[in-house]
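Support request, please re-run this one:
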Amino acid sequence: MSHASGTIAARALAGPVRVYQRVTANRPTPCRYLPTCSNYALDALEQHGACRGTFLSIRRICRCHPWGGSGMDPVPQRKAT
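Re-run finished. Output below.
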């Protein structure tokens, strides 16, 4: 997959996240982490592309529950190739 098509896929996946953010903008966030899970997903998609960004986002959402951790949890840095 070329870098351009990966960017297009990541942007397409970011669309529903942005819609979710707009729909829930006036509600208190249930997220236990900073950045919030939706902001984390957008950052992960931007930094890592569609496949890895989606994986990181799902992994983060699975950790975000009342018995999970909390606090700062930034997107991991992309490894240099």
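The chain has a mean pLDDT of 90. The radius of gyration is 13 Å.
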